[in-house]
Design brief:
Shape of chain A: elongated
Oligomer: homodimer
Helix content of chain A: 40-55%
Strand content of chain A: 5-15%
Strand order of the largest sheet of chain A: 3-2-1-4-5
Largest interface: A-B, 89 and 89 residues
Radius of gyration of chain A: 21 Å
Largest sheet of chain A: 5 strands, parallel
Protein backbone atom coordinates (compact mmCIF):
# COMPACT_ATOMS: atom_id res chain seq x y z
CA UNK A 1 0.00 0.00 0.00
CA UNK A 2 1.33 3.39 -1.03
CA UNK A 3 -1.66 5.53 -0.06
CA UNK A 4 -4.48 5.28 2.47
CA UNK A 5 -7.47 7.63 2.38
CA UNK A 6 -9.38 8.12 5.62
CA UNK A 7 -12.92 9.38 5.16
CA UNK A 8 -14.02 10.94 8.45
CA UNK A 9 -10.97 11.97 10.48
CA UNK A 10 -12.48 11.67 13.95
CA UNK A 11 -11.71 9.39 16.87
CA UNK A 12 -11.65 6.20 14.79
CA UNK A 13 -10.22 7.62 11.56
CA UNK A 14 -7.60 9.70 13.35
CA UNK A 15 -6.56 6.79 15.57
CA UNK A 16 -6.29 4.59 12.47
CA UNK A 17 -3.88 7.08 10.91
CA UNK A 18 -1.81 7.35 14.08
CA UNK A 19 -1.75 3.56 14.49
CA UNK A 20 -0.60 3.12 10.86
CA UNK A 21 2.27 5.53 11.46
CA UNK A 22 3.19 3.82 14.71
CA UNK A 23 3.26 0.49 12.84
CA UNK A 24 5.77 1.95 10.37
CA UNK A 25 3.48 2.70 7.41
CA UNK A 26 5.60 4.84 5.07
CA UNK A 27 3.06 5.77 2.38
CA UNK A 28 0.76 8.78 2.14
CA UNK A 29 -2.25 9.27 4.41
CA UNK A 30 -5.03 11.36 2.93
CA UNK A 31 -7.97 12.76 4.83
CA UNK A 32 -11.55 13.54 3.77
CA UNK A 33 -13.41 15.57 6.41
CA UNK A 34 -14.76 19.04 7.15
CA UNK A 35 -12.38 21.93 6.43
CA UNK A 36 -11.91 22.54 10.15
CA UNK A 37 -11.04 18.92 10.92
CA UNK A 38 -8.66 18.71 7.96
CA UNK A 39 -6.89 21.81 9.20
CA UNK A 40 -6.47 20.29 12.67
CA UNK A 41 -5.38 16.92 11.26
CA UNK A 42 -2.74 18.57 9.05
CA UNK A 43 -1.49 20.67 11.93
CA UNK A 44 -1.08 17.58 14.12
CA UNK A 45 0.54 15.76 11.15
CA UNK A 46 -2.08 13.02 11.46
CA UNK A 47 -2.68 13.21 7.68
CA UNK A 48 -0.46 14.33 4.83
CA UNK A 49 -3.17 15.84 2.61
CA UNK A 50 -6.79 16.87 2.71
CA UNK A 51 -8.78 15.80 -0.36
CA UNK A 52 -12.31 15.50 -1.67
CA UNK A 53 -13.91 12.05 -1.63
CA UNK A 54 -13.57 11.92 -5.44
CA UNK A 55 -9.83 12.60 -5.32
CA UNK A 56 -9.30 10.31 -2.32
CA UNK A 57 -11.03 7.46 -4.14
CA UNK A 58 -7.83 6.82 -6.10
CA UNK A 59 -5.99 5.69 -2.94
CA UNK A 60 -4.83 2.09 -2.60
CA UNK A 61 -7.01 1.73 0.49
CA UNK A 62 -10.06 3.80 1.42
CA UNK A 63 -11.20 3.60 5.07
CA UNK A 64 -14.72 4.90 5.68
CA UNK A 65 -14.85 6.06 9.29
CA UNK A 66 -17.88 8.36 9.29
CA UNK A 67 -21.28 7.62 10.90
CA UNK A 68 -23.22 4.83 9.17
CA UNK A 69 -25.55 7.22 7.36
CA UNK A 70 -22.63 9.02 5.75
CA UNK A 71 -20.95 5.73 4.81
CA UNK A 72 -24.18 4.75 3.05
CA UNK A 73 -24.10 8.09 1.19
CA UNK A 74 -20.43 7.75 0.26
CA UNK A 75 -20.72 4.31 -1.32
CA UNK A 76 -22.64 5.38 -4.48
CA UNK A 77 -19.95 8.04 -5.08
CA UNK A 78 -17.27 5.40 -4.71
CA UNK A 79 -19.19 3.18 -7.13
CA UNK A 80 -18.56 5.92 -9.69
CA UNK A 81 -15.08 7.15 -8.87
CA UNK A 82 -13.07 4.47 -7.04
CA UNK A 83 -9.89 3.43 -8.81
CA UNK A 84 -9.94 -0.06 -10.39
CA UNK A 85 -7.55 -1.40 -7.74
CA UNK A 86 -8.82 0.64 -4.78
CA UNK A 87 -9.59 -1.52 -1.75
CA UNK A 88 -12.37 -0.19 0.47
CA UNK A 89 -13.23 -0.95 4.07
CA UNK A 90 -15.22 0.79 6.79
CA UNK A 91 -15.83 1.10 10.50
CA UNK A 92 -19.65 1.13 10.61
CA UNK A 93 -21.32 -0.47 13.62
CA UNK A 94 -23.91 -2.32 11.52
CA UNK A 95 -22.94 -4.23 8.40
CA UNK A 96 -25.82 -5.55 6.26
CA UNK A 97 -27.01 -2.32 4.64
CA UNK A 98 -23.44 -1.16 4.06
CA UNK A 99 -22.45 -4.49 2.48
CA UNK A 100 -25.49 -4.34 0.20
CA UNK A 101 -24.69 -0.87 -1.03
CA UNK A 102 -21.00 -1.77 -1.52
CA UNK A 103 -21.71 -4.63 -3.93
CA UNK A 104 -19.54 -4.33 -7.04
CA UNK A 105 -16.81 -2.47 -5.18
CA UNK A 106 -13.60 -4.10 -3.93
CA UNK A 107 -15.12 -3.82 -0.47
CA UNK A 108 -14.65 -5.71 2.79
CA UNK A 109 -16.62 -4.28 5.71
CA UNK A 110 -15.22 -3.98 9.22
CA UNK A 111 -16.25 -3.04 12.74
CA UNK A 112 -13.55 -2.02 15.21
CA UNK A 113 -14.88 -2.65 18.73
CA UNK A 114 -13.06 0.28 20.24
CA UNK A 115 -14.11 3.72 21.31
CA UNK A 116 -14.16 6.27 24.06
CA UNK A 117 -16.81 8.15 25.96
CA UNK A 118 -16.12 11.28 23.90
CA UNK A 119 -15.49 11.29 20.18
CA UNK A 120 -13.58 13.63 17.87
CA UNK A 121 -10.07 13.93 16.47
CA UNK A 122 -8.80 15.38 19.78
CA UNK A 123 -9.37 11.97 21.36
CA UNK A 124 -7.49 10.03 18.67
CA UNK A 125 -4.54 7.92 19.80
CA UNK A 126 -2.35 5.29 18.16
CA UNK A 127 -3.16 2.64 20.78
CA UNK A 128 -6.97 2.84 20.48
CA UNK A 129 -7.25 -0.57 18.78
CA UNK A 130 -4.61 -2.39 20.85
CA UNK A 131 -5.98 -5.76 21.86
CA UNK A 132 -9.51 -4.80 20.80
CA UNK A 133 -11.60 -6.96 18.46
CA UNK A 134 -11.97 -5.80 14.86
CA UNK A 135 -14.67 -7.76 13.07
CA UNK A 136 -14.26 -8.25 9.31
CA UNK A 137 -17.49 -9.10 7.54
CA UNK A 138 -17.06 -10.62 4.07
CA UNK A 139 -20.28 -11.02 2.12
CA UNK A 140 -20.15 -14.15 0.00
CA UNK A 141 -16.70 -15.28 -1.15
CA UNK A 142 -13.84 -13.76 0.82
CA UNK A 143 -11.90 -11.37 -1.44
CA UNK A 144 -8.34 -12.33 -2.31
CA UNK A 145 -7.01 -9.24 -0.53
CA UNK A 146 -8.79 -10.00 2.77
CA UNK A 147 -5.63 -11.37 4.36
CA UNK A 148 -3.75 -8.23 3.39
CA UNK A 149 -6.32 -6.12 5.26
CA UNK A 150 -6.37 -8.52 8.22
CA UNK A 151 -2.56 -8.33 8.46
CA UNK A 152 -2.70 -4.54 8.38
CA UNK A 153 -5.23 -4.52 11.23
CA UNK A 154 -3.23 -7.02 13.25
CA UNK A 155 -0.22 -4.79 12.61
CA UNK A 156 -1.94 -1.81 14.23
CA UNK A 157 -2.75 -3.88 17.32
CA UNK A 158 -6.31 -5.14 16.68
CA UNK A 159 -7.54 -8.74 16.99
CA UNK A 160 -9.30 -9.74 13.82
CA UNK A 161 -12.48 -11.85 13.92
CA UNK A 162 -14.64 -12.94 10.97
CA UNK A 163 -18.43 -12.94 10.62
CA UNK A 164 -20.89 -12.55 7.77
CA UNK A 165 -22.83 -9.25 7.80
CA UNK A 166 -26.06 -10.93 9.03
CA UNK A 167 -24.18 -12.83 11.75
CA UNK A 168 -22.54 -9.59 12.80
CA UNK A 169 -25.77 -7.60 12.94
CA UNK A 170 -27.55 -10.27 14.99
CA UNK A 171 -24.61 -10.49 17.36
CA UNK A 172 -24.38 -6.73 17.96
CA UNK A 173 -28.17 -6.59 18.40
CA UNK A 174 -27.70 -8.99 21.32
CA UNK A 175 -24.47 -7.86 22.93
CA UNK A 176 -24.55 -4.13 22.21
CA UNK A 177 -27.91 -2.77 20.99
CA UNK A 178 -30.12 -4.60 23.50
CA UNK A 179 -27.97 -3.62 26.52
CA UNK A 180 -28.01 -0.02 25.27
CA UNK A 181 -31.80 0.06 24.94
CA UNK A 182 -32.24 -1.67 28.30
CA UNK A 183 -30.19 1.06 29.95
CA UNK A 184 -32.17 3.74 28.11
CA UNK A 185 -35.49 2.15 29.15
CA UNK A 186 -34.34 1.92 32.77
CA UNK A 187 -33.42 5.62 32.73
CA UNK A 188 -36.84 6.47 31.26
CA UNK A 189 -38.59 4.34 33.89
CA UNK A 190 -36.66 6.21 36.58
CA UNK A 191 -37.17 9.64 35.03
CA UNK A 192 -40.42 10.06 36.96
CA UNK A 193 -38.46 9.40 40.16
CA UNK A 194 -36.21 12.39 40.11
CA UNK A 195 -38.10 13.97 42.98
CA UNK A 196 -37.27 10.94 45.08
CA UNK A 197 -35.24 11.42 48.28
CA UNK A 198 -31.85 12.72 47.27
CA UNK A 199 -29.86 9.94 48.86
CA UNK A 200 -26.84 8.87 46.82
CA UNK A 201 -27.41 5.37 45.53
CA UNK A 202 -24.84 2.72 44.85
CA UNK A 203 -22.49 1.67 42.07
CA UNK A 204 -25.07 -0.83 40.76
CA UNK A 205 -27.42 1.88 39.51
CA UNK A 206 -24.50 3.87 38.12
CA UNK A 207 -23.34 0.86 36.07
CA UNK A 208 -26.84 0.27 34.75
CA UNK A 209 -27.29 3.87 33.62
CA UNK A 210 -23.87 4.49 32.06
CA UNK A 211 -24.94 3.41 28.56
CA UNK A 212 -28.04 5.61 28.75
CA UNK A 213 -25.68 8.59 28.46
CA UNK A 214 -24.55 7.51 24.96
CA UNK A 215 -25.15 10.21 22.35
CA UNK A 216 -28.20 9.97 20.10
CA UNK A 217 -26.07 11.03 17.09
CA UNK A 218 -24.26 7.73 17.32
CA UNK A 219 -27.31 5.55 17.88
CA UNK A 220 -29.77 6.98 15.38
CA UNK A 221 -28.07 5.29 12.42
CA UNK A 222 -27.27 2.09 14.31
CA UNK A 223 -30.89 1.52 15.32
CA UNK A 224 -32.28 2.62 11.95
CA UNK A 225 -30.08 0.11 10.11
CA UNK A 226 -30.63 -2.81 12.50
CA UNK A 227 -34.22 -2.40 13.67
CA UNK A 228 -35.29 -5.80 12.33
CA UNK A 229 -32.70 -7.60 14.47
CA UNK A 230 -33.19 -5.35 17.49
CA UNK A 231 -36.98 -5.76 17.72
CA UNK A 232 -36.99 -9.50 18.50
CA UNK A 233 -34.27 -8.87 21.09
CA UNK A 234 -36.42 -6.22 22.75
CA UNK A 235 -39.39 -8.62 22.65
CA UNK A 236 -37.31 -11.21 24.41
CA UNK A 237 -36.21 -8.82 27.13
CA UNK A 238 -39.79 -7.57 27.62
CA UNK A 239 -40.91 -11.19 27.91
CA UNK A 240 -38.24 -11.98 30.50
CA UNK A 241 -39.16 -8.91 32.58
CA UNK A 242 -42.80 -10.05 32.41
CA UNK A 243 -41.86 -13.54 33.62
CA UNK A 244 -39.82 -12.08 36.48
CA UNK A 245 -42.83 -9.93 37.40
CA UNK A 246 -45.15 -12.94 37.50
CA UNK A 247 -42.77 -15.13 39.50
CA UNK A 248 -41.58 -12.43 41.93
CA UNK A 249 -42.97 -14.24 44.95
CA UNK A 250 -42.81 -17.79 43.58
CA UNK A 251 -40.14 -20.48 44.06
CA UNK A 252 -39.64 -20.62 40.25
CA UNK A 253 -37.77 -17.35 40.47
CA UNK A 254 -34.80 -19.18 42.01
CA UNK A 255 -34.30 -21.09 38.75
CA UNK A 256 -34.45 -18.01 36.54
CA UNK A 257 -32.08 -16.27 38.91
CA UNK A 258 -29.51 -19.04 38.67
CA UNK A 259 -29.82 -19.15 34.87
CA UNK A 260 -29.23 -15.39 34.72
CA UNK A 261 -26.21 -15.71 37.01
CA UNK A 262 -24.71 -18.50 34.90
CA UNK A 263 -25.17 -16.45 31.72
CA UNK A 264 -23.69 -13.32 33.27
CA UNK A 265 -20.67 -15.23 34.59
CA UNK A 266 -20.14 -17.02 31.29
CA UNK A 267 -20.33 -13.77 29.29
CA UNK A 268 -17.94 -12.12 31.74
CA UNK A 269 -15.37 -14.88 31.24
CA UNK A 270 -15.80 -14.63 27.50
CA UNK A 271 -15.18 -10.91 27.76
CA UNK A 272 -11.91 -11.20 29.62
CA UNK B 1 -24.13 2.20 75.79
CA UNK B 2 -22.37 -0.49 77.77
CA UNK B 3 -23.23 -3.49 75.61
CA UNK B 4 -24.06 -4.04 71.94
CA UNK B 5 -25.41 -7.35 70.67
CA UNK B 6 -24.89 -8.14 67.00
CA UNK B 7 -27.28 -10.73 65.60
CA UNK B 8 -25.70 -12.18 62.44
CA UNK B 9 -21.93 -11.67 62.56
CA UNK B 10 -21.28 -11.55 58.81
CA UNK B 11 -20.02 -8.80 56.52
CA UNK B 12 -22.37 -6.12 57.91
CA UNK B 13 -22.48 -7.28 61.53
CA UNK B 14 -18.74 -7.93 61.70
CA UNK B 15 -17.93 -4.58 60.09
CA UNK B 16 -20.27 -2.86 62.55
CA UNK B 17 -18.34 -4.40 65.46
CA UNK B 18 -14.97 -3.43 63.96
CA UNK B 19 -16.20 0.10 63.21
CA UNK B 20 -17.48 0.49 66.78
CA UNK B 21 -14.08 -0.49 68.15
CA UNK B 22 -12.31 1.83 65.73
CA UNK B 23 -14.58 4.66 66.93
CA UNK B 24 -13.48 3.99 70.52
CA UNK B 25 -16.48 2.05 71.83
CA UNK B 26 -15.31 0.63 75.17
CA UNK B 27 -18.28 -1.55 76.13
CA UNK B 28 -18.94 -5.23 75.46
CA UNK B 29 -19.77 -6.56 72.01
CA UNK B 30 -21.83 -9.73 71.98
CA UNK B 31 -22.46 -11.92 68.96
CA UNK B 32 -25.38 -14.16 68.00
CA UNK B 33 -24.53 -16.41 65.06
CA UNK B 34 -23.78 -20.00 64.11
CA UNK B 35 -21.25 -21.80 66.33
CA UNK B 36 -18.65 -21.71 63.58
CA UNK B 37 -19.01 -17.98 62.99
CA UNK B 38 -18.94 -17.22 66.71
CA UNK B 39 -15.71 -19.22 66.99
CA UNK B 40 -14.12 -17.24 64.16
CA UNK B 41 -15.40 -13.91 65.52
CA UNK B 42 -14.00 -14.65 68.98
CA UNK B 43 -10.68 -15.73 67.52
CA UNK B 44 -10.39 -12.48 65.57
CA UNK B 45 -11.53 -10.55 68.66
CA UNK B 46 -14.38 -9.03 66.69
CA UNK B 47 -16.79 -9.91 69.52
CA UNK B 48 -16.23 -10.43 73.23
CA UNK B 49 -18.85 -13.15 73.77
CA UNK B 50 -21.11 -15.46 71.84
CA UNK B 51 -24.64 -15.66 73.20
CA UNK B 52 -28.11 -16.92 72.35
CA UNK B 53 -30.63 -14.39 71.05
CA UNK B 54 -32.48 -14.62 74.37
CA UNK B 55 -29.37 -13.77 76.38
CA UNK B 56 -28.25 -11.10 73.91
CA UNK B 57 -31.65 -9.39 74.12
CA UNK B 58 -30.56 -7.82 77.42
CA UNK B 59 -27.94 -5.67 75.67
CA UNK B 60 -28.31 -1.89 75.61
CA UNK B 61 -28.41 -2.03 71.79
CA UNK B 62 -29.36 -4.99 69.62
CA UNK B 63 -28.32 -4.78 65.94
CA UNK B 64 -30.09 -7.28 63.69
CA UNK B 65 -27.76 -7.93 60.74
CA UNK B 66 -29.11 -11.21 59.37
CA UNK B 67 -31.07 -11.65 56.11
CA UNK B 68 -34.55 -10.08 56.18
CA UNK B 69 -36.31 -13.43 56.68
CA UNK B 70 -34.30 -14.11 59.82
CA UNK B 71 -34.86 -10.57 61.11
CA UNK B 72 -38.60 -11.16 60.72
CA UNK B 73 -38.23 -14.40 62.70
CA UNK B 74 -36.13 -12.78 65.43
CA UNK B 75 -38.55 -9.96 66.18
CA UNK B 76 -41.27 -12.06 67.89
CA UNK B 77 -38.55 -13.53 70.13
CA UNK B 78 -37.40 -10.03 71.00
CA UNK B 79 -41.01 -9.04 71.72
CA UNK B 80 -40.85 -11.64 74.51
CA UNK B 81 -37.33 -11.29 75.86
CA UNK B 82 -35.89 -7.83 75.09
CA UNK B 83 -34.89 -5.87 78.17
CA UNK B 84 -37.16 -2.91 79.07
CA UNK B 85 -34.48 -0.41 77.96
CA UNK B 86 -33.02 -2.40 75.08
CA UNK B 87 -32.81 -0.34 71.88
CA UNK B 88 -33.15 -2.36 68.68
CA UNK B 89 -32.14 -1.55 65.13
CA UNK B 90 -31.48 -3.60 62.01
CA UNK B 91 -29.80 -3.65 58.61
CA UNK B 92 -32.56 -5.15 56.46
CA UNK B 93 -32.80 -3.97 52.84
CA UNK B 94 -36.59 -3.56 52.97
CA UNK B 95 -38.32 -1.84 55.85
CA UNK B 96 -42.12 -2.01 55.89
CA UNK B 97 -42.61 -5.62 57.00
CA UNK B 98 -39.82 -5.35 59.56
CA UNK B 99 -41.26 -2.13 61.01
CA UNK B 100 -44.70 -3.74 61.29
CA UNK B 101 -43.39 -6.74 63.15
CA UNK B 102 -41.28 -4.56 65.46
CA UNK B 103 -44.22 -2.52 66.75
CA UNK B 104 -44.18 -2.33 70.53
CA UNK B 105 -40.39 -2.71 70.71
CA UNK B 106 -37.98 0.17 71.20
CA UNK B 107 -37.10 -0.25 67.53
CA UNK B 108 -35.75 2.07 64.85
CA UNK B 109 -35.09 0.36 61.51
CA UNK B 110 -32.03 1.06 59.40
CA UNK B 111 -30.52 0.24 56.03
CA UNK B 112 -26.76 0.67 55.56
CA UNK B 113 -26.10 1.16 51.82
CA UNK B 114 -22.78 -0.62 51.91
CA UNK B 115 -21.62 -4.03 50.84
CA UNK B 116 -19.16 -6.05 48.85
CA UNK B 117 -19.38 -8.56 46.06
CA UNK B 118 -18.74 -11.39 48.51
CA UNK B 119 -20.29 -11.62 51.96
CA UNK B 120 -19.21 -13.29 55.19
CA UNK B 121 -17.25 -12.37 58.28
CA UNK B 122 -13.94 -12.78 56.41
CA UNK B 123 -14.84 -9.69 54.37
CA UNK B 124 -15.65 -7.52 57.39
CA UNK B 125 -13.68 -4.32 57.81
CA UNK B 126 -13.96 -1.25 60.05
CA UNK B 127 -14.20 1.16 57.09
CA UNK B 128 -17.12 -0.53 55.31
CA UNK B 129 -19.57 2.26 56.17
CA UNK B 130 -17.21 5.20 55.67
CA UNK B 131 -19.00 7.87 53.66
CA UNK B 132 -21.84 5.48 52.76
CA UNK B 133 -25.51 6.34 53.32
CA UNK B 134 -27.26 4.69 56.25
CA UNK B 135 -31.02 5.21 56.04
CA UNK B 136 -32.94 5.34 59.32
CA UNK B 137 -36.64 4.64 58.94
CA UNK B 138 -38.78 5.76 61.87
CA UNK B 139 -42.41 4.64 61.72
CA UNK B 140 -44.67 7.26 63.15
CA UNK B 141 -43.19 9.48 65.89
CA UNK B 142 -39.39 9.47 65.96
CA UNK B 143 -38.22 7.76 69.20
CA UNK B 144 -36.42 9.93 71.74
CA UNK B 145 -33.26 7.85 71.34
CA UNK B 146 -33.11 8.27 67.52
CA UNK B 147 -30.43 10.95 67.76
CA UNK B 148 -28.32 8.70 69.96
CA UNK B 149 -28.39 6.00 67.27
CA UNK B 150 -27.77 8.52 64.48
CA UNK B 151 -24.74 9.88 66.37
CA UNK B 152 -23.40 6.36 66.82
CA UNK B 153 -23.72 5.70 63.06
CA UNK B 154 -22.12 9.02 62.18
CA UNK B 155 -19.34 8.11 64.61
CA UNK B 156 -18.59 4.89 62.67
CA UNK B 157 -18.33 6.85 59.41
CA UNK B 158 -21.82 6.53 57.88
CA UNK B 159 -23.97 9.36 56.52
CA UNK B 160 -27.39 9.20 58.10
CA UNK B 161 -30.54 9.89 56.03
CA UNK B 162 -34.16 9.68 57.19
CA UNK B 163 -37.17 8.16 55.41
CA UNK B 164 -40.39 6.48 56.49
CA UNK B 165 -40.53 2.72 55.82
CA UNK B 166 -42.93 3.14 52.83
CA UNK B 167 -40.79 5.95 51.35
CA UNK B 168 -37.74 3.76 51.76
CA UNK B 169 -39.27 0.71 50.14
CA UNK B 170 -40.54 2.69 47.15
CA UNK B 171 -37.16 4.34 46.75
CA UNK B 172 -35.17 1.08 46.81
CA UNK B 173 -37.69 -0.47 44.41
CA UNK B 174 -36.68 2.25 41.94
CA UNK B 175 -32.98 2.68 42.50
CA UNK B 176 -31.97 -0.83 43.51
CA UNK B 177 -34.58 -3.54 42.87
CA UNK B 178 -35.57 -2.42 39.36
CA UNK B 179 -31.94 -2.10 38.14
CA UNK B 180 -31.24 -5.56 39.59
CA UNK B 181 -34.21 -7.15 37.81
CA UNK B 182 -33.38 -5.35 34.57
CA UNK B 183 -29.89 -6.81 34.64
CA UNK B 184 -31.30 -10.27 35.43
CA UNK B 185 -33.83 -9.99 32.57
CA UNK B 186 -31.09 -8.89 30.17
CA UNK B 187 -28.98 -11.91 31.15
CA UNK B 188 -31.98 -14.20 30.61
CA UNK B 189 -32.68 -12.62 27.21
CA UNK B 190 -29.06 -13.24 26.27
CA UNK B 191 -28.93 -16.76 27.71
CA UNK B 192 -30.14 -18.18 24.40
CA UNK B 193 -27.20 -16.43 22.73
CA UNK B 194 -24.39 -18.28 24.39
CA UNK B 195 -23.61 -20.09 21.14
CA UNK B 196 -23.04 -16.73 19.50
CA UNK B 197 -19.61 -15.98 17.99
CA UNK B 198 -17.11 -15.99 20.82
CA UNK B 199 -15.87 -12.47 20.25
CA UNK B 200 -15.15 -10.56 23.44
CA UNK B 201 -17.66 -7.74 23.79
CA UNK B 202 -17.14 -4.41 25.41
CA UNK B 203 -17.33 -2.87 28.87
CA UNK B 204 -20.94 -1.77 28.23
CA UNK B 205 -22.30 -5.31 28.33
CA UNK B 206 -20.11 -6.14 31.32
CA UNK B 207 -21.55 -3.20 33.27
CA UNK B 208 -25.10 -4.20 32.38
CA UNK B 209 -24.64 -7.81 33.54
CA UNK B 210 -22.71 -7.21 36.76
CA UNK B 211 -25.84 -7.07 38.96
CA UNK B 212 -27.17 -10.27 37.38
CA UNK B 213 -24.41 -12.10 39.27
CA UNK B 214 -25.90 -11.10 42.66
CA UNK B 215 -26.71 -14.12 44.82
CA UNK B 216 -30.28 -15.37 45.03
CA UNK B 217 -29.93 -15.87 48.80
CA UNK B 218 -29.73 -12.12 49.19
CA UNK B 219 -32.55 -11.27 46.80
CA UNK B 220 -35.19 -13.85 47.72
CA UNK B 221 -36.20 -12.01 50.91
CA UNK B 222 -35.84 -8.55 49.37
CA UNK B 223 -38.21 -9.31 46.50
CA UNK B 224 -40.63 -11.28 48.66
CA UNK B 225 -40.97 -8.36 51.08
CA UNK B 226 -41.24 -5.61 48.45
CA UNK B 227 -43.11 -7.25 45.58
CA UNK B 228 -45.98 -4.74 45.68
CA UNK B 229 -43.58 -1.81 45.10
CA UNK B 230 -41.43 -3.68 42.59
CA UNK B 231 -44.25 -4.77 40.28
CA UNK B 232 -45.31 -1.26 39.17
CA UNK B 233 -41.63 -0.45 38.57
CA UNK B 234 -41.30 -3.50 36.35
CA UNK B 235 -44.48 -2.50 34.52
CA UNK B 236 -43.00 0.92 33.88
CA UNK B 237 -39.77 -0.51 32.51
CA UNK B 238 -41.66 -3.00 30.30
CA UNK B 239 -43.76 -0.10 29.01
CA UNK B 240 -40.66 1.98 28.22
CA UNK B 241 -39.02 -0.92 26.36
CA UNK B 242 -42.24 -1.33 24.37
CA UNK B 243 -42.28 2.36 23.47
CA UNK B 244 -38.63 2.19 22.38
CA UNK B 245 -39.51 -0.83 20.25
CA UNK B 246 -42.36 1.00 18.52
CA UNK B 247 -40.36 4.17 17.88
CA UNK B 248 -37.10 2.48 16.85
CA UNK B 249 -37.19 3.97 13.38
CA UNK B 250 -39.19 7.09 14.17
CA UNK B 251 -38.03 10.64 14.89
CA UNK B 252 -39.79 10.49 18.32
CA UNK B 253 -36.99 8.27 19.54
CA UNK B 254 -34.67 11.29 19.67
CA UNK B 255 -36.83 12.84 22.41
CA UNK B 256 -36.93 9.70 24.54
CA UNK B 257 -33.20 9.34 24.08
CA UNK B 258 -32.51 12.83 25.35
CA UNK B 259 -34.85 12.35 28.30
CA UNK B 260 -33.04 9.13 29.21
CA UNK B 261 -29.66 10.88 28.93
CA UNK B 262 -30.80 13.75 31.14
CA UNK B 263 -32.06 11.32 33.78
CA UNK B 264 -28.88 9.25 33.68
CA UNK B 265 -26.68 12.32 34.01
CA UNK B 266 -28.79 13.78 36.81
CA UNK B 267 -28.75 10.49 38.76
CA UNK B 268 -25.01 10.20 38.24
CA UNK B 269 -24.44 13.67 39.73
CA UNK B 270 -26.72 12.81 42.60
CA UNK B 271 -24.63 9.71 43.20
CA UNK B 272 -21.34 11.48 43.40
Amino acid sequence: LQSVAIVGVGLIGGSFALALRRAGFGGEIWGVSSALTIEKALEKQIIDRGLTLEAAARADLVFLATPIGTILESLPHLQRCAGPNTLITDAGSTKRQIAERARGLRFLGGHPMAGKETSGLEQAEPGLFDGRPWILTPEGPVPDWADQLADLLTGIGARVHWMSPPEHDRWVAACSHLPQLTSTALALALSRFQDAPSVPSGPGLRDMLRLAESPWDLWRDILATNADEVKPMLDRCIEELGILRETLEKPDLANSWEEARRTAVSLRYRNS
